[in-house]
Design goal:
single chain; zinc; about 10% strand; hydrolase; Creatininase/forma_Hydrolase; two-stranded antiparallel sheet; Creatininase family protein; metal-binding; alpha/beta; four-stranded parallel beta sheet
Length: about 270
């Protein structure tokens, strides 16, 4: 049976025993609390995550087996340590927290989990944890970052999508739609990323190129921001959210329908 609520913490302990363990998908929202320049609050990643998820829940059909876990709004943000307000966990701690939350989900009888991410600094760690959950617990563990779900090439210039990776037009637009009172457009600038010059000088090397190096936000811009924040608008932000939310709904449906029988037990050679 479907849960009586979409939220994990609303269920009583006895109600977990009545869940459809083949279909139920636990969703763990994972984000970050980190600097986003002079014009945006440190809650940007967490706020965008919550906004997309909230809209997705409005769009979910009654039969959906989604069950949203309490969010984990902070993550691995050590690339932003040079700026006050950033909260971060080490990758060792964060990976362990994610794993142990999923382990608790598994203990409740739920075998499918989606890590819904909104911070670009942690997909690699999510891949590792999802593999560990498959290997050690036999779970269907999935992760996605919201911008991987949608095409926004008709909304934003190609250079902005490629280089405006932090606090630029895209994230500022989303915040103008979701939390306009928290945006200081009088402080917004065109924050030109050093990556633009790097890609002209080097064929393969860059912060987000084919060959990547470890970087901190101040390496790309003194304000820790990349992108044309001045060009942001609430209309663009609404378009982003309205595209991402139904795609999240579709992903949850895919995961719900994915047969657990496809998680095949391994055979050790003698």
């Amino acid at each position: 049976m479907a849960a009586t609520s979409r939220f994990w913490w609303d269920l009583s302990t006895t109600e977990f025993g009545a869940l459809d363990t083949e279909r139920t998908v636990a969703i763990l929202p994972v984000g970050a609390i980190e600097q986003h320049g002079p014009h945006l609050p440190v809650k940007v990643d967490a706020a965008i995550n919550a906004g997309i998820l909230s809209r997705a829940l409005e769009l979910m059909p009654p039969h959906s087996a989604a069950l949203v876990l309490p969010p984990l709004p902070y993550g691995k943000s050590d690339e932003h340590l040079a700026f006050p307000g950033t909260l971060t966990l080490s990758h060792e701690t964060l990976g362990r927290v994610w794993y142990e939350i999923a382990e608790s989900v598994h203990r409740a009888g739920v075998r499918k989990i989606l890590f819904f991410n909104s911070h670009g600094g942690q997909p690699q760690l999510l891949d590792i944890i999802c593999r560990d959950l498959r290997v050690k617990l036999g779970m269907l563990a999935v992760n996605t970052t919201w911008w991987q779900l949608i095409d926004i090439s008709d909304l934003f210039a190609a250079d902005e999508i490629r280089l405006g990776i932090h606090g630029g037009q895209i994230e500022t637009s989303a915040m103008l739609h979701l939390a306009p009172d928290d945006v200081r457009m009088d402080r917004a600038e065109t924050f030109i990323s050093a990556a633009a010059a790097i890609e002209q000088e080097f064929a393969l090397l860059g912060p987000e190129a084919a060959a990547r190096f470890g970087w901190q936000a101040q390496d790309l811009h003194p304000a820790g921001v990349c992108g044309d924040a001045r060009a942001a608008s609430a209309e663009l932000g609404r378009a982003v959210v309205e595209r991402a939310a139904p795609r999240l709904v579709a992903l949850v449906d895919d995961i719900s329908r994915y047969p657990l029988s496809r998680i095949v037990a391994g055979h050790r050679s003698q």
